[in-house]
Fold each of these.
Amino acid sequence: MNNKMNGVKFSVKKPVKNISKKIITEKKIKKSETAQKIPPAKIKMPKKTNNRVISIVVSIAVTALIAGGGVYMWQKKASLNIIEQKEKEAQNLKYDLEEILNKTKSKLTGAESDNDNLKKINEELKAKAEILNIAKREFYSEEYGFSFFYPAAFGEAVLEIEEGVLGKKIIGKFSNNEKLTFGAITEDYKAATSSKLTFLDTQGFRKRWNSYYFKALGSDTYEINPVKVIEIGGQEAVLVDKNSFTIEGEEIIPVDMGGDVGFIINLENEEFTGIGFLNSDFGVLPLEDFELLIKTIKTN
């Protein structure tokens, strides 16, 4: 509508009634139409599935914890049982070892006691042996005119007479030492059986200048190379071994000495003019002691 005032023209707009209400109403109608047009598939429903999954996961976790705890407790109990069993076995082994040690100690104590007794007996035997070694016995033959002293440990000295086809032979032995013997033959001695000439088949020795000769059967003599010559009571005793009878250029040794050594001594007797002493064991009678025995010989 146009109005004129004082020559000025102006227009006046009519007031709009209830326009805002109309707009609001239209919006509501549009929203309602839009809601009706949305497909059912696109309508969002409440998320109840997530809560259920969480419940299941929690249940599984709790179950796992409970089961794991049970397994752990079972393993722990089994481990404790094994440990207890091993401890018992170790304890039993300890008891067994202690028992063995005690028995061993007992045996050792008994062995030590036995050893002490053996040592004591050994010392007593040594003392007795020393006394016996120091102690001497005398052998004396008035018939054949000689005597000597020897260790009492050798026992009794016995002189045997052996009759030959001709003449006779004497052999001396000791009851406790068969390795020491002495003997002689008469000038006319002839053995019942032929045998090799032995050292005890002697009538003594003959000396010519500085040479020595072994007097054997009859008038047979064999030159000897003495190992040693010692003086006893104003006469000589000749020490010989197997090498003493070796004759240069000959393989046969006339007198059988074996591996032994012997002394030859002359006697002042018409029937037996000499005698020989044969030592077959230096372990029983060392050479030095053998020589000392020979030095005690007396002839008359």
Note: DSSP finds three helices and 15 strands in the chain.
Amino acid sequence: MTKSYPHTRSNLVQKKSLGQNFLVNEKVYQFMVQEIAPQKGEVIIEVGPGEGVLTEHLAKSEARIIAVEKDHRLIPSLKEKFKDQKNVTITEEDILKFDPKKLRFDLFADPRSNLGIFNYKLVGNIPYYLTSHLLRITLEDWPKPKSILFMVQKEVAQRMTAKPPRMNLLALSVQFFAKAKIVKKISRGNFRPTPKVDSALVKIIPKEKFAFDKLFQKNFFQLAQAAFQNKRKQILNSLTNNLTYRAALFVQGSPVSFKDFLNQKMAGAGIEPTRRPESLSVEEWERITKAFWPEQLSA
């Protein structure tokens, strides 16, 4: 028989504003621990520990657990629960404002890598309203983790892991920095209160060999965002209509039109201009960016 955890143990009413739906299936917790695989000497940052059930499982390892909880009502019970476990730290903070650099990850650098991979992992049950923003800051701004395991709405997980011809901006924003795959689908009945949608666990492994600087990233997403404003249109038409940052690309007074200019760049990248944005892979978007800004490659 599968063990479950009553969601009323702390006698708190879940906050809809925080997207609180607590997981109550023991087997799913065990699966999460297996996937995150905490090791001695690692740092595990847990986003939104809630009542500390996953925290309790993770704490059995010799990893250092940093549990970041926004709901101040849960902090006293969490601190009481883990007061005797020196490897668990409970932090009351909004994860979007959390500064992981204060944890001195330089002390936890992975000795096997000289590519900027840090010896920490990230795990959490992420509400819908938080997903895109949290992914952006963790992949773009935080020290690069060894792995990320997020529980998100199933539809969001499918968007994150999409491939051509179903690519989208969320998929690009994740897969530009990392490899992502759904490792388990979890029905809504495993949560209390029961949400209206199913969930999925997504495992994200940041790319070790990431060769693009901040300027390349900016240009990459500038092109993609312009194209996906009209994702059903041909990419050439979408870029012609929506790409506003023309000054760095196109010299006014040129003998060719802006659309012809874009067409030339697309041809240089080996991309057929009649294709639709959702049909392009991450690698093809990288080729387009290099074709549009070739001077960056020799800088």
Note: Strands lie at 22-23, 43-47, 64-69, 88-92, 120-125, 147-153, 178-186, 191-192, 199-206.
Amino acid sequence: MNSHKVMLCKGLQVKVILFAAVVVISQPLVQAAVRGNDWKDLLLTLNEKNALDQFKEKMAPRVPESYMKSDFYLIRWLRAKYLNIPAAQNMLNENLKWREVNRMKEILTEDWSDMKEDFPLTISNHDRQGRPVATLEMGDWDLRSAVLQGRMPRLLRYMDWYQEEIIRQILAAQDDGKNVTRATVLVDIEGFNLLQHLCASCMSVFIRMTAGMETHYPGFWEEIIVVGAPAGSRIGLEAVRPVMSPQTREILKIFDMNKRQWGSYLDERISPDQRTTRYGGTKKINDN
């Protein structure tokens, strides 16, 4: 029975066998239909199913939005706490408080044009499996100036906005019948330097960004691909690692300035028409 998996997402396009109203699927069959880590999100072990039933009974009445009541959403909090139900309850309850205090229902309608100009990022692309791709051109961000100008609270909220937008795009893909449960993040740090990016105040920003991702959006990331890393940037990346969960460390891929190397890696995951020329693609910046 330990090899049996319970199907989590009804959109999965594979054949299933029904036993006593429980959907059981072989792991290789799902992996063949869904590439990457998404297949892990579409299946539950029996232990996970039992824990989820208890967790859902306690938390579904408390969450404010319909998608948060879904197994797809709730299982992430359990897995983040290794199926420890009280710990997962506490984590999700704290997140709900954070969402209310920070008015997360309003964040998608706020005007971010000033931030997009000074801290460029895009979320209009998709990888070869249909997952949303967020591209953060952090090498062009002047974090030190943001600190000196008192813009850090807005920058951190901007990071919350992009992650919230990613979740909405994942949900939209599911509504379209796609087996998408995660997003890919491409972080370009070419141009990182000690003055603008690796000062003490700047590093605190990266640590808070990473902690926010782990605390408020656990398990929604397929890969975090860092490209263009100068030699000195390793110091900053290592400083952030302790904030990352073991799961996030596993999906973090770091490439140096060798564009041929990381370009080949991107070719396998993101088609050229979904990447700008900066990343070896053909897409124009203003393309949708």
Note: Confidence is low (pLDDT under 50) at residues 9-34.
